[in-house]
Amino acid sequence: MPDTHTAHTYDQDLPLEGIRVLDLSRVFAGPLCGQALADFGAEVIKVEHPVRGDDTRDWGMRIGKTETTYYNSMNRNKRSITLDLQSPEGLALIYDLLPQFDVVLHNFKCGGADKLGLGYEQLKAHKPDLIYCAISGYNSAGPEATRPGYDLVIQGESGLMALNGEASQPPLKFGVATVDMMTGMYAAQAVLAALFRRERSGKGRLIEMALYDCGIMVTSYYGLDALLLGRDPQRYGNAHPSIVPYGMFEAADGPFIIAVGTNTQFDKFCRQVVIRPDIVEDPRYATNIERAKNRLTLLPMVTALLREFPRDLLLQRLNECGIPCGKVLGLHEALTSERTRQGGLLQNLPHPVAGSTHVYAPPYRLDGQRLPIRHAPPTLGEGTKDVLQRLLQLSESELRALQAKGVLTLPGETPAE
Asked: Do 93 and 22 contact (CB within 8 A), yes or no?
């Protein structure tokens, strides 16, 4: 078991304390948006199907009975309640809860929320200042509105796969669901902006986010290069299209990264790192523009030189010269590193079945303190009884009656299919 921190104390007010979010989303983009809001202090109530819960409770490696590594990566700081939204009773409970919530978040297929009775106009009639965030695959006003959105498909359609990987290899997807992740973060930004505006105007807002739109945004400067060139820019893998040397190299005993971003850094690199002043004195390599033009002769020479030195010696010299550099670590090695441990980026929290579970800490630091993990990713329906009794004053007998109808499950009690 890696040496990880336990939960940190946090003695400041959380920015979204007092805000309530009804998170009807599942899988990745929506839950990640909800997690960001929860990290900032919002009370996020995740609504899940009574039997299967969020789809990602069955993705990745199993933790306990109802959680997985995939699910846990985007559901910290939330409570989970179970409701069958296709039942009249489940829908009625959503409407009963609605007046106490500021934000509704979902990622149903376009039109799906309206069919359930949970569309923006339907909910706005009961909560005029509601902030309603709907995440879909494509533009809700376009011809592809009803197409389901999947990260891998969008990576292909947006050109992201075409810019990733080595030029000699086929298009390559990113290692994580980048489009989903960025859509979740963009959605959280939009919700925060809408909450800020509501403080001034008292008005709610409809927010619509599309995976395809966000995928296009992720192409960033490569996308603008393609427009200027009138064709796809060349793929460089770990290298950089306009900075040389830049990328992953092999030392005598392992891989490492260097990024020689300025001519001054290259001068130091040649004179003090690889001890070859003649290279920088060659006019073909004196400026970055010339180095980029002559990369095919420079890079093989640099690659061969770097293989002659131990990695730690190279990193020491590079750091002394102020040249950005670092080891290439394995994923487990990075997560268990002293850097990660000291930053408190992973915490080991109690789990009712597994004994303990690793949870990523929020990346945000406010006033010098990392935001806390207030709740580990919830087991399925762990908050059903507490939340519905606290917010709706439902009695034990009322909850039992709803459970008997399959509308919800109470903690530790799961009905058959």
From this structure: no
